[in-house]
Amino acid sequence: MSRDNALTLLLDMLRSEYEPSLWIADEHVAGIQIAVNPALEVLSNRFDVAEALSKQGWRSGFSDLDFSHITDGTLTSVYFRLAKEKPMVNHVINQAARVLKTGGRLMISGDKQQGIKTYAKKAGQCLVGQVEIKKHGNHYLASITRSQQPAVLLDEQNYPVLRTALGYKGMGISSKPGQFGWNKLDKGSLLLAQQLNENPINRPGTILDLGCGYGLLSLLAHGWWPDAEITATDNNAAALSSCQQNFTQHGITGSVIADNCASSITKRHDLVLCNPPFHQGFVVEHDLTEQFIATAFRLCKPTGCALFVVNAFIPLERIAKQYFKQQQLLDNDGQFKLFKLHG
Length: 343
Ligand SMILES: C[S@@+](CC[C@H](N)C(=O)[O-])C[C@H]1O[C@@H](n2cnc3c(N)ncnc32)[C@H](O)[C@@H]1O
Hints:
9 helices, alpha/beta, 18 strands, seven-stranded mixed beta sheet, binds S-adenosylmethionine, 343 residues, Rossmann fold, elongated
């Protein structure tokens, strides 16, 4: 796991917090061990992060960054390592403006190229308060003080609300901000769709959509095999609520499960569909590919197969060889590669 220095900066600060405060822990916090600070509550949109911190003894909740249980103007500090997605960052800043007491502070850490200076300035406008930014090597820590003035809310694009965000062949697809590519159809997944349209495979009875996002692969699979039972799983709260909505709306038989790379799932499937993640926060994380292939191997019936679509630079061939006896490159459009793995 790569070391995230901007996160380390934030952790150094929150260790010495003594007043009731909040720590927003997103994907950057995956794999981190940190001594419990009872002054802090943790809110995470990642199932694995919330679960791991809970096991370490933190008061930690898993939700789509839902602050609604926190009373207005009650917290001394909110700690946040800058995230990738703008609506999510603006949502956290807006909510911080609501839950911080006058004189309380929002602490944001991040790097220059991640936009920390711009976000700090915008947070200053939202909290109508003083902004202080300190540079530590290549990383920055911004402290924004909450004034008594009414907050000037940032555009968070209706962050908490599910909406029909996308369409595919006349089908409305629900999604929301807070998850990977929430408002686009992933080109890799569309390559998989095109390949299966041209070269259908035998009807699977059970399908696992591993790292389902809002459920694009499940929706495609349901179109090809309407009777198949589909299990979709992800660790991101926004993805799970969107996918559940798409299952309900499109009458998909099966279930949507919050989990860390399907670790609680034991049932083997005829077909595993996967467009695996390769980023953890702002960095490329190659270990994720292996984790997803190993899981696909574990949850694929001996007679079944897995279809993996990955960015062309991911060395899937080499990793898959350690698990599956057979691999077939079904397509490579220069940007994405599609593999059938079995045996
Ligand atoms: C490249 S996206 C693919 C999304 C969707 N299947 C599609 O084709 O549009 C990868 C997905 O893996 C999820 N993911 C990342 N790490 C995960 C983990 N440890 N366990 C489960 N899902 C994870 C992300 O939240 C994201 O939805």
